[in-house]
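Worked example (supplementary).
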Amino acid sequence: MDTGLRKRTTASTAAARAAADAASEPLLRDDEDRIHPQMSPGIPTMPRGSIIVALIITVVALWTRLYKISLSPFVVWDEAHFGKFAGYYIKRQFYFDVHPPLGKMLNGLAGLIAGFNGSFEFESGARYPPELRYSVMRFFNGLFGALMAPLAYYTGIHLHMSQAGAILVATLVIVDNAFCVISRFILLDSMLLFFTTLSVYCLVVFRNYQKTDPFSPEWHFWMFMTGISLGAWVGLFAVALVGLHTIDDLWDMLGNLKMPAKTYINHWIFRIAYLIITPLSIYVACFALHFGILNRSGPGDAQMSSLFQASLAGSDFKSNPLELAYGSKVSLKNNARGGGLLHSHVQRYPSGSEQQQVTCYHHKDSNNEFIIMPAWDQPLEFENTKFVEHGDVVRLVHAQTQKNIHSHRVAAPLTAADYEVSGYGNATFGDANDLWVIEKVDDWTVSKDVKRIRSLTTRFRLRHKSIGCLLRSDGVTLPQWGFKQVEVVCQKKPDDNSPSNMWNIELHVNERREYPPRACLCLIAHADTSLNGIQLPTPVPPGNANTYRSSFIRDFFDLNVAMWTSNNALTPDPDKEPDQLVSQPYHWPFLIRTLRMCGWGDHEIKYLLIGNPTVWWGSTASLALVVSLFLGYVVRWRRGIRDFTTLAEWDNFYMAAKVSVLGWFLHYFPFYIMGRVILHHYFPALYFAVLAFGFVVDHIARKLPSVLHIALVALVAAVAIANFLFFADFSFGMSGPASAYANRRWLKTWNIYS
Amino acid sequence: MSDVRQRKKGAGEPVAITRAQLDAQAADGDDKAAKAARQQVPADQTYSLASNVVLAIVTVLAVITRTWSIHYPGEVVFDEVHFGKFASYYLRREYFFDVHPPLGKMLLAGVGYLVGYDGKFLFDHIGDDYAKNNVPYVVYRLWCALCGAGVVPLAYLTLREMSVSIAGATLCALLLVFDNALITQSRLILLDSMLMLFCVLCTFFWVKFYKQRHEPFSAKWWGWLAMTGVGIALVCGIKMVGLFTMGVVGIATLVDLWELLDIRRGLTLRVFTKHFAARALCLIFLPFFLYLVPFYIHFNILINSGPGDAFMSMRFQETLVGNAATAGAVSIMYGANVTIKHGETSVFLHSHSHRYPLKYDDGRISSQGQQIVGYAHSDRNSVWQMVPLDPEYHPSADDYEETEEETKRGVRYVRSGDIVQLYHVMTESYLLTHDVASPLTTTHMEMTTIKEEDFEQRYNETLWRVQVVDADDGDKLKSKKQLFRLVSHQHRVAVSSEKLVLPEWGFKMQQINGNKNTNEKTSLWRIASVEHERIVDGVEIGEERSDSGKPPLNFMSKFVELQKAMIHHNAALTKPHPYSSSPGIWPFVIRGISFWEKKEGLRQIYLLGNPLVWWFSILSVAFYGALWLVDRLCLRRGLDDFGANARRWWDRAIGYLVVAWALHWLPFFLMGRMLFLHHYLPAFIYSTMVAAALFDFLGRAVFAHVPRRGGAAGQAVPVGVWFSAGPSIAYYAVLAGVLAACMWSFWYFSPYSYGSGFATVEQLRAHKWLSTWDLQYA
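After joint prediction of all chains, the assembly is encoded as:
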């Protein structure tokens, strides 16, 4: 930057006019004036020895991520979750989790390499069995964490920082204690961070080719890679960053009147292909792989449609009796996306009728079982199997408590516009409000004319006989008194077409031995006295595997909706979440809270989730500095003062500021709206803040003589490294009593020791 | 579209011309453009005779529609139950609490005061009869109706100031005159009509100020700038919505300042700083100061204790005459018989010789210890005594040194920070908590008592630390006013209670347990009564009968406390209401609010917009957005149909109104509280102004007398030139059509607004255009 080119305006109007002439020259991107950049040297020349520098950075990063990685032979922190999920991939059992599957599949792969057979349950704090080489799995995570550093270095170079500045960025990534410790365990975070870093790197390189050589092979490659890295990790926030950049880019080109329309349209087409279709395909492909691997029945079955479950190996649905008969013991699945199983339990509603709760539940247990019974005035016939048909009036008797599913004109607990559904009466006592009309909607396999209700494939509604309302579950989560299960109501103004009002039979048992259920004893008392002696009807014949099929697309949407809804249901519960886990987003940039990742006994190896204060506080201040610089330059430009000699120079400043500040903003502010936040959610945003840190130090230092430039950068790096080493035990594992680290408790809120 | 194509082909030349023009205009700043604009509509024409006549007519019409049969129904309708009541409290000078700032209610009360009403009636229930209770409700309603009617002439004048033709401004005025929702909301005792009036007033002031921009720092300029600040303060004084209004003015000011900053405008930094400071002064500091004024009056009127006491701190309550909670506070001494009352739910800490059941319904096991429960009344089982530490079990007890006063009086006072035992007098046992889950809340600890013989093992579990709120360690614990916590010395849980009722075995009394989070409000208690030989007639021997140890709160502390409480309780208004709705459906007349209903005559007052007006308005806003986008895209491609003048007007006039609409609507999406249709009304007014301005712009452009293609080169004439033409016959015809339809629709739906009812159910059903309108008798 040549300072001689800057002009300072005096207070007189004449001088201002003179400056106005200068201002009409291209200085900044200005929509109104439609000035276009001269094609700038967008691709930075690689500084000498960049490969060697990158190698050194990688080696150092690997050392920090892998040093003493097997020190604690216990399940640390969320390894309890992600180790377990890895186990499910190895056992090929279907499980459910709110995160997309790629990271967990990679952990599964790590488990495979480590020779993990899936038998270890990853109980929190448990000791790893000798045959499980947990260090291999951790090593795998550590690799992803280490690779952030060289990517950060190259990102710096491609953001047109100096060699020293780029090294500073990589150094800050390496020496952040939080990045370090989170990469050392079997978690998702290191992969999330790696893919975030990769997306930014690809985006920045792509942008440089966009400026110099659009439609070149490199341009295609890097845009494609941007799409791949976005799809591999669906960080919605990273997608938003790339999206906003792309809109900015397209808007910029729209103003270029020299660009032929065809070229412009091509820009659009390739962006759609690379930045929308590619990531989507990768995302969907991950799920295809997920479903492909997890082909056995497991703990996550109940989140999915009944048909999907039937397709899993080990599911007993395939042997379900085909057609529903009176006396069948069934579970009822709601047909809305992510719908649960009709459920009841002894707990009562705290308000309304205060009768027994009826809910939808996403896990299988015996409280989901109901027995289909005829209306009160109809006897249950035992001599002949009587099938349930469209239009029949039935009762649903909860197998565990003998209560009848009941509705009445009492407002539902949450959806006050609809009626409450409760468990009422018992096997002998009840009223007309226990009666439901079963209405067949359609069937996946047979035509509409078939009146009988089939397991799994028939969708039907349950209409309350006296009120006319429909049994409904619409994903409304009950508070703690309902155990965060889903509310079930009777819809006052029945919407016949809503899938939330449709149900299907999932589990279906109708065998001699189970028959008759206890609930019916009273009704057959006149027929026979002893259970063993009665004449039992012929069992309802089972279906076969081909009867039950489901489609990938449907399963994909089901799983995604279920992930979305349960993510929303995970609001913090002050009764349950321990205080020290929960933090507020405003704590993060200032490193107000720290988090213990494991037990804190004197003889345990302890890990503390804490950032490197130099990096955290410095990066937060840098964000403010970048914004101030940006505003300062714009205001000065408005006043006719030139700070940039070429438009390309301004463009590069603008790009770095945009990526770091906008990226940070998009990865940080959404957490203010979300209910469930923990310290490590800040880490992706921290990466952008670190970019801002390196960039702003470099930007300012560059204005100094080159010796001072290097010195300033080196000083910042040295402080950060010293700070890292001082805090190193928090990341590498503390042994001995935590109070030995009292001198590192710089803020009272850090829970280093109690 | 064909125009666009054609001109794109010969991209070279015309584009160059446009760019040159643009540059020339930009170099001159907006002076030239603005002067040209002013020439188009000279100032005197804005207030021409024709315009003033129309203004008078629409004002009269507005008053008529809003005051028509205003006495009906003579009963408390909907939120009159709140705002009428608040007015009464002002007249009675009793302290009340509301989530809205005081100005609106104070104005209402002022009206009541002027007609000599004493505030006897408290508007307790919807449907209470006014005539029987001798309430001047018609005067109250007239005041609101007149405020509501004031919206119409102000909207008219604002549009006139924005260079909209008389016809266009009349369209806006009449759409507002005949909107059912505005009428319904204005003719009842509610705050919204005042809110709407001040919103529009603030916009009017800003427009007036903006038009003075060529004579900065003149008297008029300062005057209108200050008035804009006053407008902001007025809106903020009614409801917090004022913050949105402030946001609109703020955005416009920033845009304005950005233009002034341009070096090509030739302003020195010093002048610019002056511009900046003037705006900061008038638009931030002035409104803030004015916002305080109603609060100051509020505190000076409401000097007596009233229903709002409980929302405020003890120190605040001390300032109210006749506050029961602060009268007769005494210091608590060890050994005195005390009753302890829960701060939030007002139950007494109670124990009796019944035990917890061995097993709960969910299978958990209790300690079977003596029950500790919360009971709404005080009886002999609510009597406790504080017992100091016993040196036998706890060595640190020896440390205590009596003060001179204590030695003289022969007592020892309970002080904040003391560790005490709580002795239950009737059952001769001591309060204790232990690591057993409480009956209903399994995450909390069970409370029970033990006898003295069990001290050997469990003494430490019976110890409680007294933590007095807002007091230092060593301060004496006082009865009545002071809130305190009892925190278990061993388990660090606080004695706490929520409104959870125990089953039969607990006699339906309230659960009390140990809460690990010791900072919650649920663990606050106060001493309700004290019995001790030294206390006679509520005063300790040797003490003055004085309540307050600290000086009374000053105005700012009171203001800050009230403001915090308002924000807190506003956010807490989450209790579902059958007629609450989500902001997404508001502009589309999907659902109304039932204000009042009467079976006989099928009468119902149902807040519902005039569907034609509302749909017209929202469509216009959407159309504006689309046109704006298309224009910007075209401009980016070098096609300039609008011309800089028209675009300036398009952005600064209609654009301002669109931003106002958006800022008065979109923020509601982020709010967690219960929301109602009437929250949209200010935004609706802005959207109607957009609709009329856009209609005028397009109408004058489309039906212009100027040929669309003129000039030697056969170039298209910019839209801006069309706009400079006056309205044509065709324009008037379309306008009349739109107005006629909206007026018919008003008449058709007027029974909803005035509660005039329907003859038959069939008729009523015919008026139910959408199935989502939940009318009572349809």
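Two points are worth noting when inspecting this output. Chain B touches chain A through 28 residues (CB under 8 Å). Residues 1-31, 37-43 of chain B have pLDDT under 50 and may be disordered.
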